[in-house]
Amino acid sequence: MSQRRRIAAGNWKMNGSTAALAEFDALAARHPDPRVDILICPPATLLSPATRRMDGHNILIGGQDCHCAPSGAHTGDISAPMIADTGATAVILGHSERREDHGETSEQVRDKARAAHVAGLTALICMGESEDQRDADNTLDIIGGQMAASIPDDCNAENTVIAYEPIWAIGTGHVPTLGQITEVHDFIRARLIRRFGETAGNAIAILYGGSVKPSNASDIFTVANVDGALVGGASLKADDFSPIISALEGSF
Ligand code: PGA
Question: Is the CB of 166 under 6 A from ligand 1?
């Protein structure tokens, strides 16, 4: 279990211009030899400059979405091979903002994940319940359904990372209790083992996301099946993201 990947992932969403690349330099300087994977997913416009800038540093770069086709008449979209061509090695898929703003279904997320795998990218597949779904006590049903439909059969610990992100915790400052995080992460782990077998199911990393901050990261990382974090707002500045990385490094 301790051999699972530990990942501090930053999701910049629709934030950042070239000036923000200085944050990469600051992180690289503070974490020259990290004990965990540091992954930053800037907007598509910054993928190439970010990978060039981080060449020779231990910081991984990823996209925030991809199309399920490798190329074609899809104005405004980018494909998994295009992301790989920038030197990026991962892509976030099925983030709740994509599911909500763009009507992405779990089946589309699964097809995108397959495309990511074919292109050699790690698919960071997101899932999470809404506040109404949690209040109605449907959280585990929702997560189970999203897992069944969004995770492709070819998934393994090298090409896939799962992120549990309760929608009501994203950007709100409302973090689930450690008990709530434990319940969902244990459930995801059990489902991964049931579907992919003991070895593979135990090896796939599961990240928590939603209002992770320097002040709460250490507590969240005490949860057994939390293998890291997917961080939005607090990943934009090295001053905020660096202590979260350090908390993860200190958690095992
Ligand atoms: P947040 O976003 O850390 O700003 O809550 C997390 C995410 O959406 O990945």
Answer: no
pTM: 0.98
**Domain that residue 159 falls in:** 7-249
**Which residue puts its alpha carbon closest to atom 9 of ligand 1?**
232
Mean pLDDT value across residues 151-162: 97
Which residue among the candidates 95, 104, 117, 129 is catalytic per the annotation?
95
CB 228 within 8 A of CB 7: yes
Q: How many domains does the chain have?
A: 1
Contact 62, 92 (CB under 8 A): yes
209 sits in which H/E element: strand 205-209
**Span 56-68, pLDDT tens digits:** 999 999 999 999 9
Confidence check: pLDDT of 25 > 90: yes
Quick one: tokens of 230? 């997917």
Q: Provide, rounded to the nearest whole percent, the portion of the chain with pLDDT above 70.
A: 99
Q: Establish if 1 belongs to a structural domain.
A: no
- Answer whether residue 2 is part of any domain: no
In a domain, 68, yes or no: yes
245 closest CA partner among 228, 233, 232: 228
Helix boundaries (H) for 12-154? 22-30, 47-53, 80-85, 96-101, 106-118, 131-135, 139-150
Whether 183 is catalytic is no
